[in-house]
Amino acid sequence: MEDDMNTCLHPCPLVFDLDGTLIDSAPDIRAAVNEVLAENGLPALTLAEVHGFIGGGVEVLWRKIIAAKGLSPEDHARYVAAFLTRYEAATGLSALYPGVTEALETLATRGHALAICTNKPLEPARAVLRKTGLDGFFRVVIGGDSLPVKKPDPAPVQAALAALGADPLRPDGIYIGDSEYDASAALAAGVPFFLFTEGYRHLPVEEMTHHTSFSDFKNLPSLVEKLRD
């Protein structure tokens, strides 16, 4: 299939992760985390450290920070609450990965319905989508607090697919993400997983279950067409 096609023979729902997939949000997350640490007299985290803690949602982020830095687990709820007061406004350092907007425009033009399924809380997710100009692409946004469970549980991915019209029992769609949480959720949901390799994964690509992988968003539309047509 040529990339200049205007339609897809068999369009399907496409669900995207957010942090580490469409946007590089680690600098904003690091800044908000370090503000909380600073007000508690604790040393700042490096960007590399934050990369290693992202993926499981805010609660997991802070459990990992507490464990890595030898902090008291009893302070977990306090750190989370302080972080959340900053998180929705933490958009100034986040940036789209190259080619994201163009890929979404192509996929939408070809008839694919698009959704977000992220472990990021819903309001911070909506805020960064607005800031980056992506909010108009997505009919549905499932955040980390939209359901009682988060990825790697498949329920959030299934909810996003169902909201786009997929059969809950036999979902026909694709999940695109960057992490082990995403891979496990897609596998459990019974849909192909497309792995963006430039995000926040912790394992080598070859150790992650995926249908295909890509490092440049300019290649995503043709990969979707190859699978569908």
From TrEMBL:
Keywords: Carbohydrate metabolism, Hydrolase, Magnesium, Metal-binding
Pathway this chain belongs to: Organic acid metabolism; glycolate biosynthesis; glycolate from 2-phosphoglycolate: step 1/1
SUPFAM superfamilies: HAD-like
Binding site for Mg(2+): D17, D19, D178
Cellular component annotations (GO), alphabetically ordered: cytosol
Presence of keyword Metal-binding: yes
Xref: Pfam families: HAD_2
Example of a GO MF term: phosphoglycolate phosphatase activity
Family of the protein in this entry: Belongs to the HAD-like hydrolase superfamily. CbbY/CbbZ/Gph/YieH family.
Protein name: Phosphoglycolate phosphatase
Source organism of this protein record: Paracoccus aminophilus JCM 7686
Organism ancestry: Bacteria, Pseudomonadati, Pseudomonadota, Alphaproteobacteria, Rhodobacterales
